[in-house]
Amino acid sequence: MKSLLLWSLAMGLMWSNVSAQQRHIPLDQLQSGLAFSSPEVRGLQLDDDFASPSAHAIDKGAQLWKQVTGSNNKSCASCHGEANDSMKGAATRYPAIDKATGKLFNLEDRIRNCRSKQQKASNWPLESDELLAITLHVTGASKGMPILVSIDGPAKKHFEAGQKLYMARQGQMNLSCTQCHDQHYGQRLYNDKLSQGHPNGYPIFRLDWQYMASLERRLRFCYASVKAEVPPWGHQDMRNLNLYLMWRAQGLPIEVPAVRK
Amino acid sequence: MSSARLQLPPRIVEGDVFKLRLLVNHPMDSGFLRDIDGVLIKRNVIRQLSCTLNNQEVFRAEPTTGIAANPLFEFYLRAVKSGELYFRWVDDKANIGEMRHPLVVQLANSSSSPKP
Q: What is the rounded distance in angstroms from the CA atom of residue B85 to the CA atom of residue B83?
């Protein structure tokens, strides 16, 4: 009886610790991608908001937030007021399960959904200027706040799928995400330092692309880099992976507008 | 498309040398990059950017493909008198961007006592 009790206690502990044990990088050793950037790039991000190459996207986001559109004649601000108040912390919780559809939504999905359902406006395509700018505006309201996503309940299966993807070797290079970003971060890959691969600065301005970019675009680039088949835009895999990455970055502050090489 | 941001010191006094920072919203497509569908993006960079103060040219730049997107132009002027700053830039597609901004120069404060 006693041993059974101990066993169940141990099992219970195991279950509750399951997430802690799966962490490859302990929470106190998490480092934002900023820490792996060169001083020049870091300077671009930290100097001041004025000279940031994403300054225009910031302006545009603020403008779009107030823009009345769609057949309901509403702007984001009509319902949500100031993004800095109403959207505070929102970005730290996404991707999250949408209650109405039961699907896993990232922040872009949520915004697009709101736009078509509430504003009844034509939707912005993924990776469009407008969507990136408004996502940046919403994410900006969570600047400095720690990431904390829920992986319980209906999100659990997405989390597990994301984790599986993260661990799986793929592509002609036969590499998995974990090999670079858990086992070899801090080391050099060509002229770059491998980061821990945290998603806390998105949407980012990437100097390589000379443009704002979503996490999805960055992940697609990772897929292409290991010569794996890139899933179509908006694919579920990307949402699952996004959820796993956000869980992995738990506690890191949101850093927008981030600049990366 | 052709919007810009200008940063000036909050207070400019006659005789000061002050810094202007102009951030122009422009893709500066070098002609070497591809878009997300893999299609080559045609070259489109700002060919010339000039700044005039009271109709007198005070700054001119002729950027090429080596300049990154959303270029930041930083230069210094000596404050002589108030007036209007006028920025104008032209790119490969012959799009013209313009920006006007008042320049307020305060007179050196004559009432303040000279330094001992």
A: 7
Which residues from A are below 8 Å from B21, CB to CB? 50-51
| Residue B24 to residue A19: CA distance in whole angstroms | 46
Whether ipTM > 0.85 holds is no
At residue A17, the pLDDT reads 43
Say if residues B22 and B4 touch (Cβ distance below 8 Å).
yes
Segments of A51-126 assigned E as strands: 96-97, 104-105
User: Which CATH number does the domain B4-103 belong to among 1.20.1050.10, 3.30.70.260, 2.60.40.10, 3.40.50.1000?
Assistant: 2.60.40.10
From CA A142, how far away is CA B31, in angstroms rounded?
A: 36
- B61 membership: H or E segment, kind and range: strand B56-61
Q: What is the CATH number of domain A27-260?
A: 1.10.760.10
Left, alpha or beta for A103 (phi > 0: left; psi -120 to 50: alpha)? beta
Q: How far A56 CA sits from the closest chain B CA (Å)?
A: 6
From CA B86, how far away is CA B94, in angstroms rounded? 18
* Separation between Cα atoms, residue A12 and residue B24, nearest integer Å: 58
Q: In A, which residues are within 8 Å of B27 by CB distance? A: 210-211
* Annotated catalytic residue A114: no
pLDDT higher than threshold 60 for residue B35: yes
A-B contacts at Cβ under 8 angstroms? 33
* A251 — pLDDT class (breaks 50, 70, 90): very high
Q: How far is CA A75 from CA A58, A63, A115, A145, in A?
A: 17, 10, 9, 26
Question: What does the DSSP 8-state code read for residue B106?
Answer: B
Set of chain A residues whose Cβ sits within 8 Å of the Cβ of B38? none
What confidence category does residue B1 fall into, taking pLDDT thresholds of 50, 70 and 90? very low
